[in-house]
């Protein structure tokens, strides 16, 4: 029996482009910059923002909205910031998620899984921010120590040089 071809939906890309933030989707020229800087693509071969945009353009509505792929993005905005065509992929993926829920492609089990991942991501983000703040505090403390050391050094130099007359004074004394 011949393999059943997936249904293509020619209007899918226009529907996505009509949603807030996803307007530039049709401007994508498939350069792959989004995928190159994506932390999820780095650890999971299945995830590829450039390919997701292609799937939208090719009208692969059912295949995409029912796939786990739309839930893997951690919304870090790296692709969004670097896209030369201002595609705003993070907004695109958020819209795909909304469509998946609205059209009944995301089942309860999947949404619970997403919830757990989201909670975990929030914990990781909080820990990363705390680490960065702690590092900045260490740098500030070190800078303060350096300044104190320089002031101390300058004061010591001044005290050592107190007996040495400045050139103008020397001229007056002669
Ligand atoms: S970076 Fe932008 S233009 Fe390039 S493939 Fe990704 S979405 Fe398309
Ligand atoms: S926002 Fe999502 S797709 Fe874009 S770089 Fe971050 S994880 Fe990847």
Number of helices: 9
Shape: elongated
Bound molecules: iron/sulfur cluster
Low-confidence stretches: 166-174
Record field, number of beta strands? 0
Query: What letter string, H or E per element, gives the SSE order?
Result: HHHHHHHHH
Portion in strands = under 5%
The CATH superfamily of the largest domain is Alpha-helical ferredoxin
Overall number of domains = 2
Largest sheet composition: none
Report the helical percentage. 55-70%
Query: From the alpha-carbon coordinates, what is the Rg to the nearest angstrom?
Result: 29 Å
Plain-language structure description:
The chain is mostly helical and 174 residues long. It has helices at residues 12-17, 33-36, 39-43, 49-57, 61-65, 78-82, 89-102, 108-160, 167-173. The longest helix has 53 residues, at 108-160. The chain starts with 11 loop residues before the first helix and ends with a helix. Mean pLDDT is 85; it is low at 166-174. It binds iron/sulfur cluster (2 copies). Residues 37-40, 49, 73-79, 89-90 line the site of one iron/sulfur cluster.
């Amino acid at each position: 029996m011949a393999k059943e071809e997936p249904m293509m939906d020619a209007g899918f890309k226009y529907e996505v482009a009509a949603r807030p933030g996803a307007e530039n989707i049709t401007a994508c020229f498939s350069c792959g910059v989004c995928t190159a800087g994506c932390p999820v693509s780095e650890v999971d071969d299945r995830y590829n923002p450039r390919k997701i945009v292609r799937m939208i353009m090719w009208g692969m509505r059912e295949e995409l909205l029912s796939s786990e792929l739309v839930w893997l993005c951690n919304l870090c905005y790296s692709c969004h910031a670097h896209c030369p065509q201002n595609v705003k992929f993070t907004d695109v993926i958020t819209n795909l998620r909304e469509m998946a829920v609205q059209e009944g492609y995301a089942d309860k089990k999947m949404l619970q899984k997403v919830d757990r991942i989201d909670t975990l991501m929030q914990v990781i983000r909080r820990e990363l921010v705390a680490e960065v703040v702690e590092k900045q505090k260490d740098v500030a403390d070190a800078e303060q120590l350096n300044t104190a050391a320089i002031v101390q050094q300058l004061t010591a130099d001044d005290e050592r040089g107190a007996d040495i007359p400045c050139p103008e004074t020397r001229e007056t004394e002669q």
